Amino acid sequence: MQGLDFTVVFAYWPLLVEGLGWTVVLSVTSAVISVLAGIGFALLVLYGSALVRYPIRLFMWLFMGTPLLLQLFLIYFGLSQIGIDIPALGAGIIALSLHFAVYNADIFQAGILSVDRGQTEAARSLGFGRHRTLVDIIVPQAVRNTLPAVGSMMIALLKESAIVSMIGIAEIVHSAQLAISETYRPFEFYLTAAVLYYILNLILEAGLRRIEGKVELSR
After folding, report:
1. What sign has the CA pseudo-torsion 184, 188, 191, 192?
2. Nearest to 172 by CA among 27, 5, 30, 31
3. Distance separating alpha carbons of residues 56 and 41, to the nearest angstrom
């Protein structure tokens, strides 16, 4: 029976660190895009014309009702069949961004609707147009009100980023799998990958708590 030997991990540490770096790049990029796209979707659904509003709602319904893995495969493998070739990293970012953007859009819609209508009336009385009222008054308050929920989505996005290993992106899980294919020691490397994800989660949670604390102080 083969015993555990974590010393083998040190020989592959550069590979795991590289995977850690790509996980951070993938997660941060996708998180930023998903938040911005979520705000955009929310505004289009709430204030856009019917020609825009209903297609966006259909798009959101489709992405909420299908697995992230299927969406990733459709973007990476499916689009190439019709002549749209997207690099693996780009496909991973698009899939993660869109998948979480639709959930963020739901959150931001609730946040926008929760802002007191008196805020809009006060802004209009001061001469603010509809666009400036949304950008300067409503959206900032909605974002502040929804920070905890959006933060939870960002933590989920970080965890779900592991799924892009299925299309060969060298993030943490893929790096661990490469090491396992050479050493045949799955427990050591998968446990190390789990620890790395846990550390990233702790850092992200600490950052989110700090941001939420600053927002509370600024109210």
Report:
1. negative
2. 27
3. 7
The C-alpha atoms of residue 109 and residue 178 are separated, in whole angstroms, by: 42
Six token digits for residue 83? 């002549």
**What residues have CB less than 8 Å from 166, skipping those under 6 apart?**
69, 72, 73
The pair of structure tokens assigned to 94 is 């698009």
Residue 115: pLDDT band by 50, 70, 90 thresholds?
Answer: confident
Query: Three-state SS for 207?
Result: helix
Length of the chain: 219
Structural tokens at position 161: 């980023």
Quick check: helix, strand or coil at residue 89?
A: helix
Name 16's Cβ contacts closer than 8 Å, sequence gap at least 6: 9, 172, 175, 176, 179, 189, 192, 193, 196
Which secondary-structure segment (H or E) carries 116? none
**Which residues are CB-contacts of 83 (< 8 A; sequence separation ≥ 6)?**
none
How far apart are the C-alpha atoms of 72 and 13, rounded to whole Å? Answer: 28
What does the pLDDT average to over 47-63? 93
CA-based end-to-end distance of the chain: 61
Residue 146: Cβ within 10 Å count: 24
Tens-place pLDDT, residues 154-173:
999 999 999 999 999 989 99
- Which position has the token pair 């459709």? 74
